[in-house]
Amino acid sequence: MSSSRSVDHPLQPGDRAPNIVLDAISREGKIALDDFRGRSPLLVGLFRGLHCPFCRRHVAAMAQLNPALKERGIECLAVVKTPVERARLYFRYHPVPDLLAASDPEGASHRAFGLPILEFTENETEWPHKIGMDLIMTMRIDLPGELPEPMNPAAAGDLLEKKDGYEITKADQQIMIAGHMPLIGEFLLDREGVVRWSFTEAEEGGRNVCRGPNPEELMSAASQVVH
User: Fold this and answer.
1) Structure pTM?
2) Which residues form a coiled coil (predicted)?
């Protein structure tokens, strides 16, 4: 696994994406970001791992947009911080047709794209590196059809876990860091590998936590990248 560098804040539009080489989940072998350079724009989603109920939904949302993006000539790559065998097992039972997926249990891609690891504290917030549980309890996640009402992220996560019946295995536990949560993001790269649009949990002072990008906004950015 390789990444050219660690950066201390999320990559912004205009920044050149690093090359990362990861184990493919959807097929054998490796996937490198450089494989797409000079060939096609790429939407890369860097997710926590399949143990995270919000990330499972972000991956499914990306799979839904994949055909429309492909029509515009844009490839999609979902990167999960889940060991490759565990991820392959999950996708065998929850297939995401045609979505390229890669495993990054070490979190190399998160570091290379500058996504911080958030530490949970009792009442100290220093966004995006620390967040107090007092603040988390005031936040609300709204997922109509999935949650009975807007709920704080902890309660929403617990309810979605029960709903999904996802079983945390030893492989999942190996990548979970007690009291910490890697922040996630999606980055739209042009054909030359330069970031043209991004959506991360690190932005907006925490208002994006556990949320995914607005599909209309993403598709609008996608049409700009192609031209």
Assistant:
1) 0.95
2) none
